[in-house]
Amino acid sequence: MSLAIFDLDNTLIADDSDFLWGQFLVDRGIVDKDRYEQANKKFYEDYKQGTLDIVEFLHFSLAPLAQHDAEQLYQWRAEFVETLIKPIMLDAARDLVEKHRTNGDTLLVITATNRFVTEPIVQLYGIDNLLATTPEFVDGRYTGKFNGTPCFQQGKVTLLQEWLNHSEETLAGSWFYSDSHNDLPLLSLVDKPVAVDPDAKLLQAAQQANWPIISLRI
């Protein structure tokens, strides 16, 4: 039995939930279309290039949470998951998760996308353990700020090590599945890194390191 770690966006699902949530807000008229859509696309391009300023992005992406009460946000989120996320869940990803579950492995998702967006998605895969950037929640409302370390690049390693310190798990025999070169710090840490439908930079790194390269979009 080992620790099986999964990235979420473009790994277990066939798109980026953070970007899609932003587009959902635009399409529903919840945020200003021109300003928000342009910024959302720019931040996503920065992410793909590995140049994202995660703190700047979080200030942008978490701001709408502070502008509405939690009940309304949860209603929108449920609609978002139903209409945009369920159609991009991957059968092969479900099979991979179930393979590790059957093997008795501990399942963990670690994602840069914030917990508000990702928690219900991870639950759809039946995975109980989630490490994600955590939006601040005070007196029943989101504040637009975040708690602790952003779960991005080296921050994923930091948060995983903190989690390991409070669990009985270790990285002995551990797996990590990811599509993104942003996850190279964590991929390099586990015993069994796997590139999943990788971007160009991760594909090159995986080939050089002789890591397995797989597709879940089959």
What does it look like?
The protein has 9 helices and 8 strands. It has helices at 17-27, 33-49, 54-66, 70-85, 91-102, 115-124, 154-165, 184-187, 200-209; strands spanning 3-6, 106-111, 129-132, 134-138, 141-147, 175-178, 192-196, 213-214. It has a 6-stranded parallel beta sheet, sandwiched between helices. Helix 6 (115-124) links the parallel strand 2 and strand 3 (129-132). The longest helix is centred in the first third of the chain and has 17 residues, at 33-49. The mean pLDDT is 96.
Attribute tags:
single chain; 218 residues; alpha/beta; Rossmann fold; 6-stranded parallel beta sheet; 9 helices; 17% strand; globular
CATH superfamily: HAD superfamily/HAD-like
CATH class value: Alpha Beta
- Largest beta sheet: strand ordering: 3-2-1-6-7-8
What's the assembly state of these chains? single chain
- Examine the secondary-structure arrangement and name the CATH architecture: 3-Layer(aba) Sandwich
Q: Helix- and strand-based class?
A: alpha/beta
Radius of gyration: 17 Å
**CATH topology description:** Rossmann fold
Which outline best applies?
globular
Write the layout of secondary structure elements.
Layout: E1 3-6, H1 17-27, H2 33-49, H3 54-66, H4 70-85, H5 91-102, E2 106-111, H6 115-124, E3 129-132, E4 134-138, E5 141-147, H7 154-165, E6 175-178, H8 184-187, E7 192-196, H9 200-209, E8 213-214
Parallel strand pairs: 1-2, 1-6, 2-3, 6-7, 7-8
Antiparallel strand pairs: 4-5
Compose a concise summary of this entry.
This protein is of the alpha/beta class.
